[in-house]
Amino acid sequence: MMHRIAEFLPEGGVAVDIGASMDGDNWLDPMMGRAGRVHAFEPDPKAFAKLQERYGTRTNLVLVNKACSDNDGDVPLGRYGTHLSMLFDGEADLTVPSIRLDSYFAVEPRIDFLKIDVDGSEYAVLSGARKVINSNPGIKLVVEIHTRWLEQH
User: Mind listing the pLDDT tens digit for each residue in 122-149?
Assistant: First the structure.
């Protein structure tokens, strides 16, 4: 799917990568190859440090060390395996700043491509992005759905 990004992201467009960790599929490289600007959100401090190390000098990339959610403030994250999620069993492992995409893009709301990989928190991210999605009728979305969480919650 990533190699087909040209079908979804116009040359010079604005892309958003929510859950930009390099642990799984890496969407950032193909996004940066086409986009005029990429906004990459990663709440895990360790994963964010890896992103900064690898991409910190890229001029068309904005790295944001926050979770995307349906509220502006803080959210608890818990681990399952190597991943962090807002949906977890047991105690939170850490609390991180969160932001709604509607808040982040309040001044400049253009988004051409939105990729969401948030380990079960898809609904919260989409709820916090209602205005920006509605104001971009041509937006393309790629959302990884975690059926484990859909079945349990």
Answer: 889 999 999 999 999 999 998 887 776 6
Cα separation, 123 vs 135, in Å, equals: 19
114 beta partners: 16, 141
Amino acid found at 107: V
Decide: residue 9, CB within 10 A, 0-12 exposed, 13-18 middle, 19+ buried: buried
Interior angle at CA 77, CA 88 and CA 38, nearest 5: 120
Judge residue 97's burial from the number of C-beta atoms within 10 Å of its C-beta, 0-12 exposed, 13-18 middle, 19 or more buried.
middle
* This prediction's pTM: 0.89
